[in-house]
Amino acid sequence: DVLIIGGGINGVATFRDLALQGVDVALVERSDFLSGASAASSHMIHGGIRYLENGELRLVHEAVTERNDLLTTAAHYVRPLRTTVPIFSTFSGLLSAPLRMVLHRKTASTERGALLIKVGLIIYDSFSRGGGRVPRHTFRGRRRSLRELPDLNADVKYTATYWDASLREPERLGLDLVRDGVALGGSRARAANYTSAVGVNGGKVVLRDEVTGEEFPFAASVVLNAAGPWTDLANEALGDATRYMGGTKGSHIVLDHPELMQATGGREIFFEHSDGRIVLIYPLNGRVLVGTTDLEHDMSEPAVCTEEEVDYFLDLIGHVFPSIPVDRSQIVFRYSGVRPLPGHGDMAAGFVSRDYRIEEATLPGSDGVPVLSLVGGKWTTFRAVAARLADELMSRIGRTRVRSTKGLPIGGAVGFPRTDAERDAWVHHHLSDFGAERGTRLLHRYGTHALAVAASLRQDAQDAPLSSLPRFSSGEFRHIARTESIVHLEDVLLRRTNIAFRGEATPEVVEEVADAVADVMGWDAATRRTEIDRALAAVHAADPVAV
Questions:
Q1: Measured distance CA(5)–CA(369) in Å, rounded
Q2: What are the tens digits of pLDDT across the range 521-537?
Q3: How far apart are CA 55 and CA 406, in angstroms?
Q4: Of 6, 111, 244, 409, whose CB neighbour count within 10 A is largest?
């Protein structure tokens, strides 16, 4: 019934939703699931407080509602995140902010003062009423702010603290959506990574297996183009030249910096840099994430984090924590992606709408097969976007919704214990043979899917901690290779685990992971070597020193 092109967060969420409705659905992704724009996020589930300034009240309200829902439905990976905004003025921005909202361009004064931020937070909090799952915002004066965060820039006048949510393992959450769809839909729901849409023949979409090169026609009653920033390129491959997209590049760096980690006080520091760009410093997975830029980008070129962007990040850290030295030697990972934003002409990148719309065309050479293209969308609203897309798609094939996805737990969130005490009890009850420390790690990584992982490990006589990275065991990687649709070694390092993110993908670790999965994947010695070299190149693609 439906072919989905694009295995990013919106594509896989729509796949799951349609499978839940009993629709015959297939999804293809030209690379690995969640490997494009969805892998380059700031690892946050947030309402987007700064979009209030763009006048996008509907989007912010929807995003806050979805954030609150995900704190329950994806509790294994989504947790409340305390966020603090350092403020250096009181009244700045009161006149320029309304002009920015109307004109959608930077004005002479870009700094947001305390009063403007206070108004925004009152509106933001109001969207959580009647079901909010996070505390209300608070304001602190200079003295108390510096007492709570003593390494802050001493020029700070106030801090505002509010709550959003962190997304610890975005790629694994996306994988859970894929696996849910396959489980819910059975033989009527199929998803294939490393499979691309390359053309049209006789009213059918031509798909290519990117591993073997085989091409074959695929018929569907309706096609969804959910290729994100590549939407126009996917439409071009289908014979329809569109100009919907105008994505902007966002880069991040990850630091191994205990002093900076301590300075954050365990919270995200979210603030306005000197150029008016809203940026963040964020403790995550034992590291500090710093981002992000918002630059125009040509989709014919790869998105990489440049040295100029690194300079920008080091400068913004110095603006907030001037007494803490930070340099390039502490960067363990860097990444960059392109936001799937609509074309926006000469509008300033920061004011481009993060909302979404659906464009419709007809598959060339077909008997009226509709092609729906998703333009826009953001991580936080993936469930709502998918629900709208699923309804639109089903209307084309005469189907109606039989079940809502709202409130429906995702993957390893089913039965996930919510408090520390409940998690300890769960581990003791289900994983006591692994010991408290390892059992807790398994629950942390996989949610309640840890039960299946543990069952696999109990049957693996060769399971043992990696000598180069003992927090993982060889049996875990064999389980991943058997059950999680990996094709290349880089899929494990970059997306099935946080090994690359934490800067732990050393040659020794990569060799051991390759050894663990080689037999399961059927790799001979030459293929194993090729996969190791490919994985190291992928992990360090944006790191000129490592390369």
A1: 14
A2: 999 999 999 999 999 99
A3: 26
A4: 6
